[in-house]
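I would love for you to help me understand the pair of lines that follows before we discuss the fold together.
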Amino acid sequence: MDKLTNKEEEIMHVLWKLEKAFVKDVLAEIEGEKPHYNTLSTIIRNLEDKGYVAHNAYGKTHQYYPIVEKEDYRKGFMTAAIDNYFNNSYKNVVSFFAKEEKISVEDLKEIISIIEKEK
């Protein structure tokens, strides 16, 4: 899977949410500064070239839909981030969030409980 730019990732989140959409539908969902219609259309076509999106043609207009599941993308993204930033160590990931105070003791206890139930 090719790496996505931040803007491509933003568009994918919209497509995952909408499931099927024309460019105008995606444009309507974008918050903040909106790209020009033609720019957005190009980004979506790039996503199609990268294998993330496909389309149904209705005359000259296309309705796009994701062909990569959000969960599959998330797994790949997290695996790459853990490999690149945490030396492939989940312990390093958890300790990072603990040090940054992004995860509470209660959350850690819940994670331990989930792990113990899985064994």
